[in-house]
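Re: the multi-chain job from yesterday

Posting the exact lines I submitted so nobody has to dig through the queue logs.
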Amino acid sequence: MSGMMSGARSTAPIVRLTGIAKRFGDCHAVRDASLEVAAGEIHALVGENGAGKSTLMRILAGISPPDAGTIEVGGRDVTGWTTAQAIDASVGMVHQHFMLVPTLTIAENVILGREPMRGLAIDFARAEREVTAAAEKSGFRMNVRQLVRELSVGEQQRVEILKTLVRGARILILDEPTAVLSPPEVEELWRVLRALRDEGGTIILITHKLDEVAEISDTITVVREGRTVARFPTAGTSPASIARAMVGRDVVLAGDATIARRDERVVALAPALDVRHLVVSGEQRQRAVNDVSFTIQPREILGIAGVEGNGQSALIEAIAGLRSVESGEIFLDAADVTSMPVSDREERGLAHIPEDRHRRGLVLDYSIADNLILGRQRSYQRRGGMLDRTRILADARAAIAVADIRPSDPMMPARALSGGNQQKVVIARALARETRVLLAAQPTRGVDVGAIELIHARLRAARDSGAAILLVSAELSEILALSDRVAVMYGGRIVAIVPRSVASEEMLGPLMTGASA
Amino acid sequence: MSLALAFLAQTLRIAVPYLFAAAGGVLAERAGIISLTLEGFMLGGAFSAMLGSYWSGSPWIGALCGIAGGVALALLHAVSTIRFKADQVVSGIAINLLAVGLTRYFLKLVFDSSSNSLRVAGFSAGTSTGSLIGGLLHNPLIPFGLLIIPVVAWLLYRTPFGLRVRAVGEHPEAATTVGVSVKRVRYVAVALSGALAALGGAYLALDQHQFTDGMSAGRGFIALAAIIFGRWDPVRAGIACLFFAAAETLQIQLQGMQAIPSQFVQMIPYVLTIVALVGLVGRAMPPAALGRE
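And the result, structure tokens for all chains:
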């Protein structure tokens, strides 16, 4: 603890990774990565999804050993250490998927693995006292006896950070910490991280969001295809040059290029999708969607902003026909489809890009070609009931070319594709036949910057050819980049619908957290 | 009055093997390992307890041998499911069949019988009920059995081991990231479940002073039903055991009258388990990582 405590930013790196390599089966997650982090800085580790950032940091945190390379922390070679040793050496990691046990209390989660004892039993009184004290010191207000499953995502993240701090972490690794937070929660997180840095702590932030990098970091290291390819000081580096290093070529950044600009256009068409007073029940009998009404015109994208878990998933599933409706109506081109099965809705031109492509979007062990015909396999039937493989393969090759799916082998199992290419398969299938209404739920989640560009272009093209698109995204920047109108969902209700021209992060942020309009 | 006391005494005596097995099963299940094996652990425990008592002449040594037999089977199950990642249900069924086969084989080998062992030293004469307290203290495994539920509840909710068991059964990766060894916690939990369920089996053999083929007679499954009915909480599972035992006692006492066919009474635990599973008595939520790696 001693040397790291000093607030001075010394030049000697506190963390030095050299020539790290790690493979999982045939996949080289990390090939040759080297990283130097100075004490007392916020260091951003940026790169596309699947570039190997998380793997590299899991190696640093002792969760998996490297195949090659050395790890030094505080000048000591600690290559191949265990999680427990990393924790003892003040290295803590906040994972992208929280490592919290939902059925335990906050205090129990924090003390797990290093329980204070009284006799043979845990000293719960002391544990609760200590956890409460540590929480207050970091500016967190929480009841440590509350079960973690009752907490919001932002609160859970605070518990994760608390876990590492209570273990004495001075080097804190955060993996995509803002993915699930609303803008005010992100601000709160930045406040906590800056305070930690100012006390002499060192922070490594994994992210692929360039605006975050610019706002919070002191130094940037770029990871591409398992290699560390560039290192910049944040000051004086442009987002475009970071993006170029991430992707290896020039990219058009969402937000600064083509902001949708057609919201003033007066459209007098009949709505393609008309949702009236929709009520959908959730898991625990409460209303996941509570009296939601809106319409979408053809050639229009309605973006739904909101922190995840405010009813967006239930809304999309109800319109797609995957979840039954308690009351209210759904009209597709003036036809009531409220109680129609999925296949009939699809016949009428409804297409769906599901938010969880592994669970609902793809059969991972099927080939690309088979995934592309899922749901419309009957139209590939030959007389006698057999599938027409020749036509399936021909259509698949065409779709692969249009959607730029790589690798382009139609017999490749979907499992072997990167997240971005898997998503291209899902979108290619959704748009394969004439689409009147497209439900796009988190269309670019876990997808790299290059693929995001392509997916956004396809969504805009679908809109321009006449589709009505309902877009749900946790990324406010994506909503703002694509939508013609923006709705905000909070607590199962739509709390505001505004034209794109008046929507901004500053305006939408408070609405997303339930502050009234 | 004496009728009520006799009813209570008999209920407790019937409940003891359920309580042991359910107490052990709760530990394994909360750690994420399915306890279909309780039946096999009980049968193995009953046989090895009888054998230990037969060779040593002491029911205490018999009980210890019973524990050893149960732990041996449990470790076999633990190695196959934790070390070699075998499917827990398949391994559990195999363990149960193995226990049946092994006990039959050794019964034949040692006693040259396909139905029962010779009479061995046991804990109670198993004849008169006597006074309530006296009758219950006659067999020391009865007070042990009644105490085991609070002991396991304390272990699960108040000790580091229990906290780790609960974490490992819900979110093993979370436990790993704070330096808790998931495998070690699971090995210990399964071994404890083997030891406790085997004590339940030992109770049967030492109470009757002999081993009879298949003498666990589905009690391990009833204990599992009690665990599910008790929503994986040791105290609620213990209450379920007492309830099932009371139903069984009632059936025995009513046998003369033929009021209810005994088969219906025997169905009660299973019917209640289904009732619990479909959520009619509050949602039965198993540990999230139960049955998974």
